[in-house]
Amino acid sequence: MEFATCTYQEFAPSMGAPIRTTAGHPRFPLGYELAGHAKLITPTRDLLAQNLPQDAYEFSYRRILNSYGIDRIHAELAGLAARNGGARLVLLCFDRYDKLKPPNDWCHREFFAKWWLEQTGEEIPELGSRKGSPQGGLW
């Protein structure tokens, strides 16, 4: 399986299969159809409502990931990949790094990518804007 992360706004169909990882659906037109929802890596509404600083949020989010475990998360993502013909899964959320300001210039997708790397040794690239860049990532 191949993964990447991006935002709903910066995603292009050539990147792969767009997978929702947010508690809510986008409330703006996407210009493409979502190919699934990775529910096990989606932050809970309870976690989002706490408005935690980065370190506390990451700790709490990792607890959620660890409670499901790598095998269960891998199985969910493998199912999404299979339903999308083995296409690269692009894990999407709302937070554009080129629009975020310190100290709140972080997103759950980077925490997931770090956790996945620790669990599997596989890196997940970010396809959207980068921290500190005025615009643009790999695309």
TrEMBL record:
Source species, domain of life:
Bacteria
Q: Which organism is it from?
A: Streptomyces olindensis
Q: What is this protein identified as?
A: Uncharacterized protein
